[in-house]
Amino acid sequence: MGIEFLVTSLIVTASPGTGVLYTLATGLSRGFRPSIVAAFGCTLGIVPHMAATIMGLAALMHTSALAFQTFKFLGVAYLLYVAWNTWRDRGTLSVEEQAGEPPSVVRVIWTGILLNILNPKLTIFFLAFLPQFVSTNEAHPVPRMIELSAVFMLMTFVIFVGYGLLAASVRDHVISRPQVMTWMRRTFAGAFVALGAKLAFTNI
After folding, report:
1. d(C-alpha 67, C-alpha 164), whole Å
2. 75 neighbors 118 (Cβ within 8 angstroms)
């Protein structure tokens, strides 16, 4: 496993995206432990993309405009749904520390999984990313791709937990300021809309 793979993976996982945004929002609204759960869910959402790449389904999506567009707009719709819930639901980013019914662990994990599953660009990324680090002379390419994917997922989880810790560390400084929490809730909602718009206008 070369340093190029580790550096590239670090850049990709640390770059702000839907998973990072969701983990930050969870850390700010619920604290550090829930943010770990959110990071875990986002990491699990990588598994289907990894499996699709290994089984060749990513190549089909890459060549089929209809399949890509369908999957893409499902992702856009879900991002807009998350944005709407974040905007209107004060329980997501509440101004009161114990206000609202906290979401269950399953719900937090499932939201993280869906956010990453419904992102076709992640599958295309795996299709273009993983093969670069698997030698054409590799005797067992599938186990090698699984190994690289596992490292990528581990890095994703660790970095997302770091984002969650950062968000949780400033939570006490902002949770007592209603105007700040309202602004942050609207900012997160707007960011999810922006990510949805960006996905809507991307092509294969």
Report:
1. 34
2. yes
Give the tens place of pLDDT for each residue, 91-122: 444 434 444 456 789 999 999 999 888 877 67
Residue with tokens 């959402």: 45
Residue 92, pLDDT score: 41
d(C-alpha 47, C-alpha 121), whole Å = 14
For residue 29, give every residue at least 6 positions away whose Cβ sits within 8 Å of its Cβ, in sequence order, or none: 92, 93, 94, 171
User: Tokens 């550096």 label which residue?
Assistant: 7
Count Cβ atoms within 10 A of the Cβ of residue 25 and give its class: 0-12 exposed, 13-18 middle, 19 or more buried. Answer: buried
Q: Is the dihedral of CA 37, 40, 46, 50 positive or negative?
A: negative
Confidence of residue 165 (pLDDT cuts 50, 70, 90): very high
Q: What are the phi and psi torsion angles at 71 (to 5°)?
A: -65, -40
| Residues 152 and 13 sit within 8 Å (Cβ to Cβ) | yes
pLDDT, average across residues 111-136: 78
Structure tokens at 39: 């990071």
Separation between Cα atoms, residue 111 and residue 186, nearest integer Å: 19
Rounded CA-CA distance 114/44 in Å is: 9
